[in-house]
Amino acid sequence: MRTVLGLAAALAFGGGAAAQVPVKPDVPSILVWSPQQQADWYRSIESVYKVETVARGDKVRPLPRAARQVAPTWTHAGKSWTVRDYMDAHRVSGVLVLKDGQIVLEEYGLGRGPDDRWTSFSVAKSVTSTLAGAAIRDGKITSLASPVTDYIPELKGSGYDGVTVRQLLMMSSGVKWNEDYADPNSDVARSVSLPIEPGKNPLVTYMARLPRAHEPGTLFNYNTGETDLVGILVSRATGKSLAAYASEKIWRPYGMERDAIWMVDPAGHERGGCCMSITLRDYGRIGQFMLDGGMADGTAVLPDGWTTEATTPQIVKGAPPPGYGYFWWMRPQGGYEARGIFGQGILIVPEEKLVVVVNSAWPTAVGQELGAARLALYEAIRAAAK
Fold first, then answer.
1. What is the per-residue pLDDT across 310-327, written as a single tens digit (0 to 9) for each?
2. Is 3-385 CATH 3.40.50.300?
3. How far, in Å, CA of 190 to CA of 16, rounded?
4. pLDDT tens-digit profile of 16-72?
């Protein structure tokens, strides 16, 4: 896997500490919370940071429990495993499996219950790209081919001249960007520690200063700043906050069970690249919404074919095989994922009508063995659910 997806860079999947706005004094960086702080605060992030609410509607979409429940067992790293073994060993707060829209497995840990939310880290990126699709369906964004500068004019005359919405969603703007979180002079570190100027978004101001390194659309380069930029673009295009638009297009019509919350940046804008807090079943409903082709209450929320296009490889060069979609990760084993550090994920396998949600509080943001163990869990669940 590319260096940009290594540990140092992957820390930026959740953004730097300065990208959050604390409401609790003397809070350490979210990236270095103790195990107890993770267990307590991942499920009550609103007690730590400023947030906006993604309001649910009056109706809840049922997730019936299937007559046949699954109890996978598997062997990994020379040991036999059950789902509970995996959860205990890897600090997992929830595992949910939907097959044909029904619950076939639901387990909780770390003191979490069905009504408790859990922070998403970069799983939020996939929600943001879905809201971009909704804005296209609504005619607020003209098309994927629209120039980014049509919606964020402060970027005119910068490296973003000629960059399209689609190229942003592919993480292939061609703009020079250093995602090395371990480097205090990297873009990902500097872009979240700028002073707030009245009437200006500091992230937009920073991104406008960046030079072009490649022709747009030719090379994947993981760029946390641009995922937040897409969130700003969607808000500008729709004239609504991301939280309000997510409520209007997904949470209310699809029947989410509980309000979600979305962390805001120092400018008061929801972070397009990070940090929604959602219940386990509502994470599952996000996956089911994608399986349903972006339909909510019988109405199309997304453009025709969007869920297929967004979740199949759109760019290959520079991306982990088999490629990258619109803020969705493709899997060599089949299906696609929304991913976040410290063990957050939604796996969707359309051919199997399967959704798997895992929320965790891993001891490190990423890790080769952690990833391998989760892959073994995924494959055991897939086998059991067939």
1. 999 999 999 999 999 999
2. no
3. 9
4. 444 678 888 888 888 899 999 999 999 999 999 999 999 999 999 999 999 999 999
Q: With CA atoms as reference, report the closest residue to 263 among 44, 26, 8.
A: 44
- Is residue 277 part of the annotated active site? The answer reads no
* Residue whose C-alpha is closest to residue 94's, from 244, 238, 278: 278
Six token digits for residue 118: 């859990």
Sign of the C-alpha dihedral computed for residues 253, 41, 275 and 20 taken in this order: positive
The single residue of 44, 47, 80, 122 carrying the catalytic annotation is: 122
Query: What's at 178, amino acid-wise?
Result: N
